[in-house]
Write a structure and sequence with these properties.
- The chain is an all-alpha fold.
- The chain has 1 helix and no strands.
- The longest helix has 77 residues, at 2-78.
């Protein structure tokens, strides 16, 4: 009877350790793929922010030109 109990304990321990190592390897592989996907997402977001910054720069240039035209027009009427 003792041999059967120790055999069952040994099989349970081996199965538990094997499952733990298998799941650990799966989690590591998922984490590696997630990092790559997250890095790609960060690159895409940076590109979008760069486009938004370029649009704001363009709007700022237009406002500066408009302000210069307004100043020139007001200077004409001030003299």
């Amino acid at each position: 009877m003792d041999a059967a109990v120790w055999t069952a304990i040994g099989l349970l321990a081996a199965t538990s350790l094997g499952t733990m190592f298998y799941l650990g390897a799966r989690i590591d592989s998922l984490a590696a793929r997630t990092d790559v996907r997250f890095d790609a997402l960060v690159v895409r977001m940076d590109a979008r922010f760069d486009r938004v910054d370029a649009r704001f720069d363009h709007i700022e240039e237009r406002f500066d030109a408009l302000a210069a035209r307004l100043d020139a027009h007001l200077d004409q009427h001030a003299t």
